[in-house]
From TrEMBL, chain A:
GO BP terms: transition metal ion transport
PANTHER family: METAL TRANSPORT PROTEIN HI_1621-RELATED
Topology of the protein relative to the lipid bilayer: Multi-pass membrane protein
Pfam families linked to this entry: CbiM (PF01891)
Transmembrane segments: 12-29, 41-60, 72-98, 110-132, 138-165, 172-198
Main location: membrane
Subcellular localization(s) per the UniProt record: Cell membrane
InterPro entries: CbiM/NikMN
Protein name: Energy-coupling factor ABC transporter permease
Lineage, top ranks: Bacteria, Bacillati, Actinomycetota, Actinomycetes, Propionibacteriales
TrEMBL record, chain B:
One GO CC term, this protein: plasma membrane
Keywords: Cell membrane, Membrane, Transmembrane, Transmembrane helix
Subcellular localization, as worded in the UniProt entry: Cell membrane
InterPro entries: PDGLE_dom (IPR025937)
Pfam family, any one: PDGLE
Transmembrane intervals: 21-43, 89-109
Protein name: PDGLE domain-containing protein
Keyword Translocase set for record: no
Residues covered by the PDGLE domain: 21-111
Length: 237, 129
């Protein structure tokens, strides 16, 4: 969904640029809590992984394709603030080196494919994690559901931006219908990729997955607190 | 403290712990393979937004990319005619560039590991700007 130059007018592009810059600025401060000596390299690698997977367009029906956006994936793996930084780096590199996404549209693309998918993906993930069984093995499913929802919502954010500052006079209802229609399908691809990526790390090192850590802590607390009295119930090895 | 409890978790699940560096190396290897090799087989049809813009007719307002003749424009490598190689080089370069930039940024922003006598607060105040 990389927006090229010329789709949105200058004021809207400047406005999204300001929003993107402010969000990255806040993320630079907030991400500190999510990042330590182990998770910082992980965040760099997740950005690299998202760049790689964004090269892999998959077909969604006749003559159309889509690719991962990655906000939900990054937010669950490395934390939402870090995900804003990681995805922003991807879009900046794509715009400056790969001519993918206009430079005047860079703020728009960070808002659409970075901020929107991180925010929606992570909120849905948190909701699902609260509802699903409190085990790390359910984290990939919760992440996939976040990813599934995040893509059509991002496409609606584009519709809103187009309503504000689109350069062509088109029927906005038709735009919304068409955008959501195709991005529901792309969202399914996003969900599958997110599931596979999160599951592969959760299965070997759940403690490296930001969104799985509270579940591990919870279980640890149960074991520690009751260890002297009821250790027989908990012993597994 | 956190290291000790993680070990416990892994013991409780009864499996050997995979070292962090192997998880990182695995992620890098997968990324390089996807960008360097698998990307050649990606679908080349227009993406969702492009397709919608063509159907509804607003694609006509698109203007050229500022850097459309940069060396890696459109995920190819300037001067390399073989499609597989051209895309592969661009993909591998992109993965490494993103890794260095994003990894460098997150490394600079991270919390420093507290010193042994835990001068915790003192070591975490300065680098955010």
């Amino acid at each position: 969904m990389h927006v090229p130059n010329g789709f949105l007018d200058a004021p809207t592009s400047v406005a999204t640029g300001v929003v993107a810059t402010a969000a990255v600025g806040v993320a630079l401060v907030k991400a500190r809590k999510e990042l330590d000596d182990r998770t910082a390299p992980m965040a760099g690698l997740i950005a690299a992984f998202i760049f790689a997977v964004q090269m892999l367009n998959f077909p969604v029906g006749a003559g159309t394709s889509g690719h991962l956006m990655g906000g939900a994936l990054a937010a669950v793996l490395v934390g939402p603030w870090t995900a804003v930084l990681s995805t922003s780096v991807v879009f900046i590199v794509q715009a400056l080196l790969f001519a993918d996404g206009g430079i005047t549209a860079l703020g728009t693309n960070i808002v659409l494919m970075g901020l929107s998918t991180v925010l929606v993906g992570y909120l849905v993930f948190l909701g699902m994690r609260a509802v699903l069984p409190k085990r790390a093995s359910f984290v990939p499913l919760a992440a996939a559901l976040g990813a599934l929802v995040s893509v059509p919502v991002a496409s609606l954010v584009f519709v809103v931006l187009y309503a504000i500052g689109g350069n062509a006079d088109i029927d906005l209802a038709a735009l919304a219908t068409a955008m959501v229609g195709v991005h529901v399908l792309i969202g399914i691809g996003e969900a599958v990729i997110t599931y596979l990526a999160v599951a592969s790390i959760v299965s070997v090192r759940p403690d490296l997955v930001h969104g799985a850590r509270p579940l591990l802590e919870q279980r640890r607390l149960v074991i520690h607190d009751t260890a002297p009295a009821t250790s027989s119930q908990e012993t597994s090895a | 403290m956190s290291t000790a409890t993680e070990d416990r978790t892994d013991q409780a699940e009864g499996r050997p712990r995979v070292a962090t560096r192997w998880v990182l190396a695995g992620t890098l290897l997968v990324s390089l393979l996807l960008a360097g090799v698998v990307s050649y087989y990606a679908a080349s049809s227009p993406d969702g937004l492009e397709q919608v813009s063509q159907t509804l007719g607003f694609h006509t307002t698109e203007t050229d990319h500022e850097l459309s003749d940069s060396p890696f424009a459109d995920y190819g490598t300037a001067g390399v005619s073989d499609g597989r190689l051209s895309g592969g080089i661009a993909g591998v370069a992109g993965v490494l560039i993103v890794l260095v930039l994003a990894g460098g940024l997150t490394w600079a922003v991270r919390r420093r590991r507290p010193e042994k006598d835990s001068a915790d607060e003192a070591s975490t105040g300065e680098t955010a700007a």
